DUF4136 domain-containing protein
Amino acid sequence: MNRLILKFALYSFIVSTLTSCALTNSVQSINYSPSLTISDKLPSSKQVKLEPMKDERGYDDERIIFYKKNMYSQTMSGTYLAENPVTEILLNAIENGLKEKGIQYNSQHEDLILKSWLIKLDCEAISGFASVQMIPEITVKFQLLDNNNKVIWTDILVGKVKTKGGSFKEFMPPAIDALVMKLVENQAFLNAISTN
């Protein structure tokens, strides 16, 4: 019985944290630290220039993570704000993923240009009897261009995971990692940057 009460209290805390002050803005720390496990390194690749990611979500402030929702999943006017622009956090994660994969980027001589657009960042909370499951989702459009500005690869990748963390630093980093893994394990992308 005590365990059930404890689970209910934890669920109530998470729901109230994510829905409280739904009309105000609050700064949240994502504290992204990559935890990627990349086993297959790319032996060689063309030089890739990373352009700054563009935020296509239509928000005035690029630090907006997403809008708050009430307990009925209705979007409110309050927002969760990151400490830095979300696109910068994602681009730093992508740089780390390319480095871990062995892809050469942002050198003096680049053969290819990687462009990216943040299309969607949202989170869904699914409540069970005594628990809540957080499902963050990050959608980014990528384009790889050659040095003649011809698109040689494009895709829309989604980083989406099921987590049980109640804070941004628990449920956002796994979604970021999932997005980066989708990029560095995308065979068409790897074929396009391979020197072979």
Notes: Helices lie at 2-19, 86-101, 168-184, 187-193. The CA atoms of residues 187 and 193 lie 10 Å apart.
